[in-house]
Fold this sequence. Notes:
- The mean pLDDT is 95.
- By secondary structure, the chain is α+β, with helices and mostly antiparallel strands.
- The strands form 3 sheets. It has a 4-stranded antiparallel β-sheet.
- The two termini are 14 Å apart.
- The chain folds into 2 domains: 2-83 and 189-194 and 207-217, no CATH class; 94-173, Alpha-Beta Plaits (2-Layer Sandwich), CATH 3.30.70.
- Strand 1 and strand 2 (33-44) form a beta hairpin.
- The protein has 6 helices and 11 strands.
Amino acid sequence: MIEELLKKTNDKKFYNDCDLKLESYRFETSTSSLEMILSINQNSYDIPIEYEEWKLSCRNTEKFDGFFWSLTLPYVKMKILQHHPLLLIFHESEIECEITGTPLNVNEFIGDVSSALEKETGNWITVNEYFWNNEQFYQNYTKRTIIIPKSLGNSILRVCEKHKMGFQIKSELVGEKKGYADKPNAKILIFGNEDVSPNDFNLRQPYIIAEEFIAERIK
């Protein structure tokens, strides 16, 4: 029934006539299972017409974020995506890169890396996952190792070359060598609204990364 829920939230009238609310959620670390209770309130001129509750079950959940408020507005359009910047770490091979040297201008270096990642990943992967904006850190540690999705390698290389820093790929991690990140079946369920922002550009849309999504109407 997940298809029915997705179709409902993407209906043209849904955004204007309905509220999608997160009533509760529960995550079990032992099984990596996430369960959410979502409610749909349909109103007409502020008069309640219909109330629904849905149970969303997510199996082999890797990550979920953005569920800070009960009302998801304006991000009410739910979609399951097989391809998304947040899935790069799970779908692609990774490269272990050795970065050497110290940037002459740390702020400019961080800004260039940030711009490169925004261009490649829509800001879903940010600079602070790989680099610190701290001049003392680069002076103390002139050799650092980062592990990134393979497709980001050329962008980081170009930034390092611009700032006269070394960039060398030491190894490529494929399949089981990626450890926990070896999840080729991972998908993302995004609560989005492409009238506000494309799903591949981060404007704090709520999302869940898991291998399976099951929905059941319970009320």
